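Input chain follows. Return structure tokens only.
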Amino acid sequence: MVFYFSSEFNSVLKINGLYLGNLNGIVKKCNVEILDNAFVEICPLSEKNAPINFIINPALFNETHPYLSIVDLGGAYLLTAQNRPTFTEKKVLCEKNYPLLNAVAFVEKGFCIQLSTPNDSVLDTFCEFPTSVSFNPFSLNNLALLAVIASGKNKVVYVYSIGEKIRFLKKMLVSNCSFENGFTTTEKFMDHKKHTRKTNWCIKNGELVRESVSVSNEKDVEIAYVIDNLIPYLFLEEFIVGGNFNEFLADNVKNNSDKLKGYFGEFIGVIPPPSFREWQEIGLVKRLRENFYSVDYYTFEVENKKITNVKKS
């Protein structure tokens, strides 16, 4: 099986004690048999990060690893070592006592959120390592909620409902959030048009769902000057943010555009095909669980700057 190894920090790669090179901005390709129980070490070259070690076997793909991101590329795996702080003891980042709620956020083998009420308590662990955390109680549709805002490399918001039972509702990567006149999040995308999406949220059947969405962009793209091979990428980026993707569709596809969401499924990113896939394919990245992703591939037919057909590979 082919494995690609990368790292978010300057490090070296060892497999079964054999030095295989530096991972500083480099992706290493290796052939490793899953049943051989190969021992992998990703060793940092500075004191800011702790080493990450794991064994490649079937269990690796059934567990959640707070320091390791796994992407099933459909013929190979991409394993990315994530920043792992060097602390060894529990470090409390924020603690608040409300009339009927105690909230604590700390790091200890992952980012932990501990919430307790007179009737219930939860302890959840996530794969981030924020440097600061704040709590923001609010309500929507008469339901008491708590937003846990964690800032570090990225800003992530975790939303819980606080009732008879404490329920985790949603985790979101945001650039900003507001609690005036409801709950609003702002997301910025590093795509061709540099989209910004603002979402107003509401509670429906006990779940946090989008009530309204507005999309804007910092850059415009003249489609007439875009080569056909890039048209599907622009379309998919517009599709992800909920923008005007119909401008990239021929009439025969546009008439069935309402079916595309079900056809694609929920995806969070777009990638070009790895070397072992066909060059015409485009990968849609789908999150299966915390730190574990898969890629489905699609082929797009384009004529006169319009997508005329879409096929799943």
